[in-house]
# Entry
Amino acid sequence: MRALSVIFFSCIVIIVTSACANSHVEKATMAIGEVAEQQLLANHKPFQLSYQEFSLSEQEVAEIKSWPSDLHIDVYFGSWCHDSHREVPRFLKLAAENTTISHRLIGLDYEKSEPKGSAKKHDVKYTPTFIVYKNNIEIGRIIERPAMSLTADISAML
# Structure
C-alpha cells in the first residue's frame, strides 16, 4: 500500500512539474504587449495562414477607403485565441486598404493582461477586442466577433 502511495505521489509531482514547465515555454511564445504586424505574421503561423486565406470584396474595399482619416483602432488579442486567429488577420487586410487609419496590436496573456496595463485600463475581458476611436474618442467596440463583418460593424459606428 505504501509503495502504491509513493508511486501515485511521484506521478502527481511529475505531472504538475511538466505542466508548469510547459506553461512557461508556452507563455514565452505568446505575443504579449504591443506587437508589429510583420512580427505577428512572421512568428505566429495561425495568423499568417488566416491572413493569406482572407480577401475583401471590391465593395468592402471602397467602403474602407471612404472612412475618415482620424480613425484609430486598438486591437487587443491573444496569440493563443482562436477568435483572434480569425479576426485579427481580417482586420490587418482591412487596415492595408486604408493606411490613413492608425492602429495598434496589443497581445495579451491568458489573464488578459500585458506589461503596460492598457488592457486593464480599458476593461478588456475578451479576445479579440477592437476599440474604435474617432478623433481620439471611443465610438465603439467589437468583442470576439463582429455582428456582421469588421467592415460593416466599423462603418455602422461612423
Remarks:
- The radius of gyration is 20 Å.
- Strands lie at 33-35, 71-77, 102-107, 129-134, 137-143.
